[in-house]
Amino acid sequence: MFAGSFPSTSPASFSRETSFLQQAVQRGQTSLHGAQLAPDSALDTTSPADEEERGRTGKTLRSRPSRSSVSLEGRLSPTLEREDEDLTASEGEGRAERQALLPRSDYRATPRATEATPLLGHSATTDGRTTTAEDAAIRQARLLDDDEARRNAYASETRTLIGYTIPILGTHFLEYSLLASVVVTTGHLGETELAAASLGNLTNNVVALSVIQGLCAALDTLCPQAYASSRPQDTSTYAIRTFLICLAICVPQALFFWNSEWILRDYLRQEPDVAYRAGQYLRILILGLPAYSGFECIRRWLQAQGLMFAPVLALVAAAPTNVFFQWLLVWGPVDWLRVGFVGAPIATVISLNIMLSVMLAYAAFRAPRDAWGGLGPDVFKGLGLNLRLGIAGVGMVGSEWWAWEVVALASSMLGSTALAAQSVLLTSASFFYNLAYALSVAAAVRVGNLLGAQKPHLARIASRVTIVIAVIASAVNSVLLILLRRSWGTLFTSEPEIINLVSDVLPLVSAFQLMDGLSGAMGGVLRGAGKPTLGAIINTASYYLMGIPIGIFLAFSGPKMGLNGLWLGLTVALTFTGVSSTWICWRINWEYEAEQTRIRLGEGKRDEEEE
């Protein structure tokens, strides 16, 4: 009822009416107490218009139970409960299943307006006027309601992001063990073998893995948004398209790897023995490029559906298998299986294909059916959207990856002690970055899901919760590095010079932990919001216009600070990246981004139709 639809009454008469109504309610409760509800037939709430429609069409119209079908405790009768559940279940089972995978938020939505909704809201009195005290009480109640809903939303998003981050972190640690096992295995063969394996891994990272991960970053935008939309089956189409793009880029990568020996020897001036063995290493890794591409695409497809533990299962199967084959092929007791140095890349290729096989099996037997659109000619259409976002992802992911490799090469010019210390510092920074990386993937999935579901208010909350988690985790990392700076180097070496140099540089590594964590986490928010191009611009400008030039100048010219200068340049770059990306994410217009998500997903369908 409208607030102004009651005739004006005096306070005394209003009090008498209220007392009369209270007595009537009490009498009704007494008469209804302990009584059974009427049969379902007696609770029919079909309107006269429905009766007319029933007589015209011959169909019985179902209706929701009326208020009279609710008991005093607020429960429906058993029959009506079953009817209500059946009716609810029929309203889009596939949509309900997808929403069940997305953690629910307690954020209170605004009720939908109807023709009976008053334009100015309900009044507190029957004459349309409220007193100042009543106005204040109403405002306070609404504020408390909003505060409680906001707290519930923040708590819900915090639980969701942490729940996503933990399995992703486990995946990243297990993936890191694949590289560590290669270093340990080849390191015991000799100095040349270790140098060749390190050079091969560096080349593989710069030429292949960084590009593949950048191209797959397109799925961080497309799959989460599509899965929460009305067309979840498009997620598989996007994943297959990105896999086709990755397969195409594997061709020039394979050509580079096949000819890497003379490229490393003649152009990068590497020692002939090291270049030869690195060339062997890279030629064998060609067989692992398609498997790595497939694994990354399926991982992002499953993570968009909230299936975060699937990659963990794949790595749990592959990591111990990799260790076994590293031992068997490099050091094993069987002569005809022991092949020495080349056994390390062979074991890596076997592990990558095991990872892909486990992911394919999981996708075939455990993934929801509504996220699979099938194989058909449509997967070869509309590649433009994936390619555009993929190129932006390469700029965002690759620019940062390549910058760290440039710093590693620059440190080799400072001498063997600086190079060894740089290896320890880079390993340490990568170890502590694992949490920021996992959080960035979780943020990309969650923000993308919420934008695809057209819930911009929750996407805003998820992005701000990501900032808080990143700050807390990075602060813990920073404190740990400061407390352990004197003894940290002893975990890697017993050489006093290297330990002292690591101890001198660790305060800088500790200082940029906050910015490193923020830049990584905010990169995930930007990818989830469909803004990888903006992230690529920020990373490129920060590293190549500021960080690397400043670091090289401080290390080799001017003050000649050596390794401290290189890491000071990295600190400048990460500070710019962290501050700018956090400011951008805080200022995003999420309502606009939700609309852009709808347009973007529609654009993909238009590209298919045009082709």
From TrEMBL:
It is found in: Membrane. The chain crosses the membrane at residues 238-258, 307-329, 341-365, 385-404, 424-445, 465-485, 533-554, 566-586. InterPro entries: MATE_euk, MATE_fam. Belongs to the multi antimicrobial extrusion (MATE) (TC 2.A.66.1) family. It comes from Rhodotorula paludigena. This is MATE efflux family protein. It comes from the Eukaryota. The keyword Transmembrane helix applies. Residues 1-132 are annotated as: Disordered. The lineage of its organism: Eukaryota, Fungi, Dikarya, Basidiomycota, Pucciniomycotina. Keywords: Membrane, Transmembrane, Transmembrane helix. GO terms for cellular component: membrane. It is a multi-pass membrane protein. One of its GO terms (biological process) is xenobiotic detoxification by transmembrane export across the plasma membrane. GO terms for molecular function: antiporter activity; xenobiotic transmembrane transporter activity. Residues 1-33, 123-132 have a biased composition (Polar residues).
